[in-house]
């Protein structure tokens, strides 16, 4: 649903881009690029807001509101109240862009520049601020404002637009002039297809492994029972087959749900229009948290059906789901703790590694603890 809303924002952005391209078709490429890139940042910001579920946020260009000569290029509103004013400058060099953004009327605005010029803009603005400190203190203040607020994207809290280069803006302008400007969509059907494939493969692999392992363990146990006369050979074989079949079905279901969640997170982490979620999605895609959630979902569903049919009592149902839920909660807690420690040691890479290790380790420990707690409760009953 969020992807569909994001794609609608991107579709509207395309229409705005191409409209600007037609309206200013006779403008030089550089001039048209400056107008087009404003719509680019507004549209990708709105798509990002949709993916974050931040429907109260909305960006629009002042040109689209009929204010082409306004000192503000883009404004962001939150539930109708303005929270950000932004100025966009995509000039030929970082030095020119820095000076363009440092005009007095742009004071206090978010200042957006080409991605490849960002460091140069900040550096130039800082140098000019120092140079003008004595003779032109007012202008020095404007340069300081640019050095502090220059960015390659429109941003409010965790929502942000996509960065764009000067070359990319010119290329986009040329396409808009022809009415052919397009955005890469957030995957929707592709996600479903990818998730389905991953779930199917995981179900097969999980079922085979669980079935074989259970067949060996159960076979040995039932073989001993048969040797000691506690059951016939036929019963031993039947019981082994039943144990292996149930284990295979259970593992296949849990593997499918967990792998499906991981696959969906992977697609979102790789999506160009999902930059705000790629960090979290990437960690989930590389962790065991999705598998833990899959286990909870399957145990809750299957256990619920069995409880409704009278095959297990309430205590057994609570035990089964409780064990799975404890493991899932442990996975998420471990991921968060590991990510914090990993960030302190190794930045973003450390966060991902820490989350993976922490999630796995704590999930295993939590699952074992949950098993002991819930089994103890069951024995007391």
What does this structure look like?
- By secondary structure, the protein is an alpha/beta fold.
- The protein has 3 domains: 2-177, no CATH class; 187-276, no CATH class; 286-381, no CATH class.
- 69% of the residues lie in helices and 7% in strands.
- It is built from 11 helices and 7 strands.
- The protein has helices spanning 2-23, 29-51, 94-101, 118-131, 137-149, 166-177, 189-227, 233-270, 278-285, 289-308, 314-380; strands spanning 57-61, 74-78, 81-88, 110-112, 150-151, 155-156, 159-160.
- Strands 1-2-3-4-5 form a 5-stranded mixed β-sheet. It has a two-stranded antiparallel ribbon with strand order 6-7.
- Strand 3 (81-88), helix 3 (94-101) and strand 4 form a beta-alpha-beta unit.
- Helix 1 (2-23) crosses helix 6 (166-177), helix 8 runs antiparallel to helix 9 (278-285) and helix 8 packs across helix 10 (289-308).
- The longest helix is centred in the C-terminal third of the chain and has 67 residues, at 314-380.
- The radius of gyration is 29 Å and the shape is elongated.
- This is Glycine zipper domain-containing protein.
């Amino acid at each position: 649903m969020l992807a569909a809303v994001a794609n609608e924002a991107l579709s509207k952005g395309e229409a705005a881009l191409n409209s600007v391209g037609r309206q200013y078709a006779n403008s030089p490429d550089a001039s048209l690029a400056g107008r087009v890139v404003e719509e680019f940042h507004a549209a990708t910001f709105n798509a990002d807001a949709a993916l974050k579920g931040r429907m109260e946020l909305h960006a629009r260009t002042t040109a689209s509101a009929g204010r082409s000569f306004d000192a503000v290029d883009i404004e962001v509103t939150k539930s109708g109240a303005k929270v950000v004013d932004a100025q966009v400058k995509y000039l030929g060099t970082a030095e020119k862009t820095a000076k363009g953004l440092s005009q007095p009327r742009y004071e206090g605005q978010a200042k957006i520049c080409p991605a490849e010029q960002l460091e140069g803009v900040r550096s130039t603005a800082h140098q000019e601020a120092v140079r003008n400190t004595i003779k032109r203190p007012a202008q020095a203040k404007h340069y300081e404002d640019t050095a502090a607020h220059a960015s390659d994207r429109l941003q409010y809290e965790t929502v942000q637009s996509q960065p764009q280069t000067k070359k990319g803006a010119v290329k986009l302008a040329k396409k808009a002039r022809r009415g052919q400007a397009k955005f890469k969509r957030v995957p929707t059907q592709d996600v479903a297809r990818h998730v389905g494939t991953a779930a199917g493969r995981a179900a097969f692999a999980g079922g085979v492994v669980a079935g074989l392992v259970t067949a060996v363990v159960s076979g040995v146990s039932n073989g001993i029972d048969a040797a000691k006369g506690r059951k016939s050979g036929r019963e031993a074989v039947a019981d082994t087959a039943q144990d292996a079949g149930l284990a295979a079905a259970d593992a296949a279901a849990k593997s499918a749900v967990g792998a499906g969640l991981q696959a969906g997170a992977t697609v979102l982490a790789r999506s160009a229009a999902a930059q705000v979620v790629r960090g979290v999605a990437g960690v989930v895609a590389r962790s065991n948290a999705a598998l833990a959630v899959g286990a909870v979902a399957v145990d809750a569903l299957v256990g619920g059906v069995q409880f409704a049919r009278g095959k297990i009592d309430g205590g057994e149902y609570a035990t089964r789901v409780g064990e799975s839920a404890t493991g899932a909660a442990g996975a998420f807690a471990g991921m968060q703790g590991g990510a914090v420690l990993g960030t302190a040691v190794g930045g973003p890479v450390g966060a991902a590694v820490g989350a993976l290790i922490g999630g796995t380790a704590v999930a295993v420990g939590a699952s074992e603890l949950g098993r002991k707690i819930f089994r103890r409760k069951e024995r007391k009953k």
